[in-house]
Amino acid sequence: MDRRKALKNISLAIGGIAITPSVLSILTSCTNEKVDENYLFLNQKQQYIVHQLMNVILPIPNFKDKINYTLFIDKMFHHTVSKENQELFNLGYLEFEKNYQNSFKKETSEANKKDIEKIVKNYFSISKQKEEAIFNLLAQEFSLIDKKLQPEYLNYTFLTKVRYYALLGYCTSEYYNKPL
Question: 0.90 exceeded by the pTM?
Answer without folding.
Answer: no
